Amino acid sequence: MTSPVASVNGKVLKRLLVLSLLVALSVIVERFLGYNDRIINVSFGYLPVALAAMLFGPVPGAIVGASADFLGALLFPVGALDLRFTLIAALKGFVYGYFLFNQGVGRGRIIFSQALVTLLCHLTLNTLVISTIIGQGFWALLPLRVVKNLLFFPVEVFTLIKLSEYRSAFDRLAK
Fold it and tell me: Averaged over 145-156, what is the pLDDT?
């Protein structure tokens, strides 16, 4: 017979293992399978973060987002390590968790959460940080970033909808 403490510790250990795997998957997808230059970033590294947020909530989503960004920047740098990007990645994970954590999340919440991430994090905060790093004005960088985000937004929404359709299978594996 197993003790209640052992089963609680087993659940905590499994949760940490799943979250760690999602961090590693996000780093791999972001750094090796995506395109990243100083102004534009195109990857599917948001999917493991969104999955962590869907399965475990806003705070674990924020932790996975921040950890993936920090470890990716530390191990496979594209530029100098900037903790402002890590905070923005945490905010993205938190937003995904806040809107997508409940079971039976509809397409409207998925679209709204991705729109919020796109407008607040990608277009506003990331563009602001990038403009201070490379020394170009915010308004000079914004048009190119708007085009990229307008083109990629439907892809992000579609992949998040597909991810949510398989949520019950992920729940069984993760919990």
Answer: 94
How do residues 122-142 score in pLDDT, each as one tens digit?
999 999 999 998 888 889 888
**At a CB cut-off of 8 Å and minimum separation 6, what does 34 contact?**
41, 42, 43, 44, 45
CA distances from 93 to 3, 38, 55, 65, 77 (A): 34, 22, 12, 5, 21
Domains of the chain: 4-174 (1.10.1760.20)
Question: Beta strands of the chain (E only): which ranges?
Answer: 35-36, 41-42
3-state secondary structure of 36: strand
Q: Please tell me the pTM assigned to this model.
A: 0.89
Of residues 105, 14, 13, the one with CA closest to residue 54 = 105
Q: Where are the alpha helices (DSSP H) in 101-137?
A: 107-116, 127-134
Alpha-carbon distance of 104 to 173, in angstroms, equals: 18
